[in-house]
Design goal:
- The chain is an alpha+beta fold.
- It has helices at about 5-15, 20-30, 35-45, 65-85; strands at about 90, 95-105, 105-115, 120.
- The protein is about 40% helix and about 20% strand.
- A hairpin with a 2-residue loop joins strand 2 (about 95-105) and strand 3.
- Helix 1 (about 5-15) packs across helix 4 and helix 2 (about 20-30) crosses helix 3.
């Protein structure tokens, strides 16, 4: 929250899937007790974010972006979920999906909400 970005975007940053501003780098360096110059150089050397996602067979313009979003943000989503819930699994058969139309001036956005049970892995 101190970076003023969503937690999934922040996690994606660590997977090389997002681009920080210089302000983000300085704040992150301060939060992690690192040298801002070193962190800036690390991001520069890493190059642009990796956003190439292989989505075979998905060609429908409504469905394709969801494959792309999971390919792009899947590792970050997993990290955030495991951090919040512990080691476990999202239960696909229990997923409830809601679709909302969100007016944005002359256009509309889609808001997709997924609610699912989360099962923790057990030790025995």
């Amino acid at each position: 929250s101190q970076l003023s970005h969503d937690e999934v975007w922040t996690a994606a940053l660590f997977y090389g899937r997002a681009t920080p501003t210089l302000k983000d780098i300085r704040l992150l360096a301060d939060l992690l007790n690192l040298s801002a110059e070193t962190l800036e150089e690390d991001f520069r050397m890493a190059g642009p974010p990796l956003r190439a996602v292989s989505v075979s067979g998905a060609t429908d313009p409504v469905v394709y972006p969801f494959h792309e979003a999971i390919g792009l943000y899947g590792p970050a989503l997993r990290s955030v979920i495991v951090e919040k819930f512990g080691d476990g699994a999202v239960c696909a058969p229990s997923i409830k999906v809601r679709v909302e139309k969100v007016p944005r001036g002359k256009t509309n956005d889609v808001r997709l909400t997924l609610d699912a049970a989360y099962s923790s892995y057990q030790s025995w």
